[in-house]
Amino acid sequence: VMVQALNSSLERKFLPMRISNAQQVAIGIDQIAIAGQQLQLLDKQLVTSTTIAGFDQPQQGVQWAGNGDLLSYDSHTVSVWRENTLLAQYKLEPDVAINCVEWHPDSKVIAICRDGRLLFWQVGETIPILFSTELTDIAAIRWSPNGRRFITWDREPSSTFLRLWQRGESEPNLLALDAPITGAAFLSDNELTTWGGDGSVSRWSVTGSPIAIYRDAGITLAARGQALSNDGKRLLVYYIGGKATLWNIESGDKIATLDSHQNTILAAAWHGDFLVTASADQTVRLWDGTTGELITVLAGHTGAVLGLHWLENGQLLSYGQINADDGDDALRIWQVLDDKNEPICWGLWDDGIPKCQAQSQSIRGYQGNFTLIRWLDNDTFIATDLNGITGRHELMRNESSGNEQDGSYMSATIPQAENEHWRQVVLNFTGTEALTYIGGRDGQLWHLDGSTWRKDASVDGPILTAFWLEPNWLVIDHDGTARRLNASGEQRQSIETQMARITDAQLHNETVAIAGADDDGAIIRAWNLASGTLSFELRDKQSRVVDAVRWNETGSQLLATTRDPGMVTLWAVDDKQALWSFAQPTANTPKAEFSSDEEYVAVAINRKFYLLNAVDGDLLWTEAKHKNTIAGIQWSI
Q1: CB-based contact 441:461 (threshold 8 Å)
Q2: Alpha-carbon span 594 to 587, nearest angstrom
Q3: Does residue 492 sit in the same domain as residue 569?
Q4: Residue 240 gets which letter from DSSP?
Q5: Kind of pairing, strands 566-572 and 577-584?
Q6: Helix or strand or coil: residue 401?
Q7: Is residue 408 scored above 50 in pLDDT?
Q8: pTM value?
Q9: Separation between Cα atoms, residue 160 and residue 171, nearest integer Å
Q10: Bridge partner list, 16
Q11: Is 194 a member of any domain?
Q12: Mean pLDDT lowest for which of 171-175, 283-287, 569-573?
């Protein structure tokens, strides 16, 4: 059974990254910073990456300043970076640990919490200013938007008060809470909120006067965080356990309870009237921020989702925690909204699966593993299987006009050979011409007439293999002869390849590269089809046979894959030299494809995926998320 799913995933990009907590990730104006053994700086589309190395200890966290400077810190050192260069650094005594750090809004001062002390470090100065010493361990510090005030609260889990400081004054105003504090934030220069272990959220003026309390009587678990809408009129409060409450901040009325996540909500972010939440249940959920209606679920992360950030053009960036089973997770980009700022996927089926991700049509009749499934356009695809069953399927918008048994599609399948299946089927790029054959015998040409495959000419065998090289067929016989046939089966050209085995052929302009082996081992031979002369040959002395080849756009390079060992090699055609090779111990043939801009090479070997720099073959990153062997790779355009 083949299943066709419309908009089966809103995910557009992902980049594996080892992240343990939200403090390790900071998103700036143009870049993403990730702390760890090194600092990784990425552009927001996850295309380019810069690494800063040489740290004595792993970096525990990162923060961007408003001016584009970046701070990173470990347990004893705070470093400030400007344009990837170290600008300033402050080191604490070896026996003192950093509890928290926070940029001042002016991008010039950093607050540092340590062993009951609060320091203000003017970036570039040797010694920070000691602001206060008579404090217990501080859990966090938050500045007001104008930088004139800040708040601190203690690491002690049972603490029930918040310190509200006026910069320049040595004594804080203490705000007494009804329950242990779990977090606080400024709503504006004049107001702030605190949330606590009883699930309540309190709104205060900066003078310390209470304004309102938001409490959902049905929720008694601790509040985990909050998110204020862009217009400042709605407040989302999310809790341990997975629930969240949406409030009208001025009236104090509850708009809705958001009850869909299966585990604690860890982050939330607004985009106009839409709202996304991230959870330890490994999902991101999109909500209508005016009603609290659940719109869709974004599934793909393999660990807890720690953070969210809206990008341009309706895209959402999410990042997740390391999964204990596979040791990795990723930054992911989702196309959540369309060009009209409306959700692409709206609504869920009764079982909770997003409607745009559920099976929409199934097509039966195939009997073996698929050897090809390729979309021709938004409504048409072609498919072949190992038993030679071939179909061209056009999906119908009007279900009543489709096949009564299988649903809304129209199919055209090639009739089978007498008493047995065609074992090999080769299609042209549009799925309207086909060559079928049984290895070692004659073949048959076909063309698609409406919804029926019609026979054309037969092709003399014994056929070893065949390829479509626009606008002709290339048929390889057992003796190594390569024949070019037109759509009517007429022979246009014959080439004596002198190859004992042929595995692949790829055309670039008038030059065809044929991969395989001769008596001396693995080889690629290329012929100019206009003249019928040999253009060049490339011999791989490390392998027994070249399994596949790919031209680059200009025809100056060839990407070749071999097995035993599994290897990808980039050849310079003019110099007849290998530029680089990437090998892994496997008996299987790697899959390899140039990216559309030819800056990268994607490689799949067994269940693992690798991304290489096309210039030098350096490994940029790898992942092993697939549960089965990867059958193919296709870059987006």
Answers
A1: yes
A2: 22
A3: no
A4: T
A5: antiparallel
A6: helix
A7: no
A8: 0.64
A9: 18
A10: 330
A11: no
A12: 171-175
Torsion over CA: 334, 338, 341, 345 (sign): negative
Asked if residue 380 has pLDDT above 80, the reply is: no
Is there a domain that residue 207 lies in?
no
| Residue 128 phi, psi dihedral angles, 5° rounding | -75, 165
570-611 pLDDT, tens digit per residue, is 999 999 999 999 998 887 889 999 998 899 999 999 888 899
Distance CA 422, CA 444 (A): 10
Work out the number of other CB atoms within 10 angstroms of the CB of residue 327. Answer: 12
134 CB-near residues (< 8 Å, 6+ apart): 116
570 and 601 assigned to the same domain = yes
Residue type, 255: I
* Contact indicator for 519, 512 with CB cutoff of 8 Å: no
Q: What end-to-end distance do the CA atoms of the chain give, in Å?
A: 28
CA distance 319 to 303: 9
What is the per-residue pLDDT across 536-571, written as a single tens digit (0 to 9) for each? 999 988 888 999 999 999 999 999 999 877 899 999
- Residues 310, 253 share a domain: yes
Whether residue 488 is found in the same domain as residue 511: no
Q: What is the DSSP letter of 343?
A: B
Q: Can you give the length of the chain in residues? A: 637
| Structural tokens at position 179 | 């329950």
Domain that holds residue 282: 224-343
388 and 266 together in one domain: no
Torsion, CA 229, CA 235, CA 239, CA 244, rounded to 10: -80
Rg (CA), the chain: 31
Nearest to 538 by CA among 566, 564, 511, 565: 511
Strands 31-34 and 191-196: unpaired
The answer to whether residues 301 and 232 belong to one domain is: yes
**Residue 626 and residue 517 in one domain:** yes
Which secondary-structure segment (H or E) carries 620? strand 619-623
Q: How far apart are CA 222 and CA 152, in angstroms?
A: 19
For 478-543, what is the HEC assignment? CCCEEEEECCCCCEEEEEECCCCEEEEEEEECCEEEEEEEECCEEEEEEEECCCCEEEEEEEECCC
Of 496, 531, 549, which closes a domain? 496
Whether 278 contacts 266, CB under 8 Å: yes
146 within some domain: no
Burial of 304 per CB tally in 10 Å (0-12, 13-18, 19+): buried
User: What CATH code is carried by the domain that includes residue 441?
Assistant: 2.130.10.10
Residue 96 belongs to some domain of the structure? no
CA-to-CA distance for 235 and 255, rounded, in angstroms?
10
3-state DSSP of 100-129: EEEECCCCCEEEEEECCEEEEEECCCCCCE
Task: Please give the Cα distance from 308 to 328 (Å, whole number).
Answer: 18
Cα(472)–Cα(486) distance, integer angstroms = 5
418 Cβ partners below 8 Å, 6+ apart?
none
CA–CA distance from 115 to each of 59, 96, 112, 130, 154 (Å)? 20, 7, 10, 12, 11
What residues pair up with 602 in beta bridges, in sequence order?
593, 611
Please, are residues 136 and 156 in contact by the beta-carbon 8 Å criterion? Answer: yes
pLDDT at 400: 38
Of the residues 449, 475, 496, the one at which a domain ends: 496
3-state SS assignment for residue 223: strand
Q: Are residues 338 and 395 in the same domain?
A: no
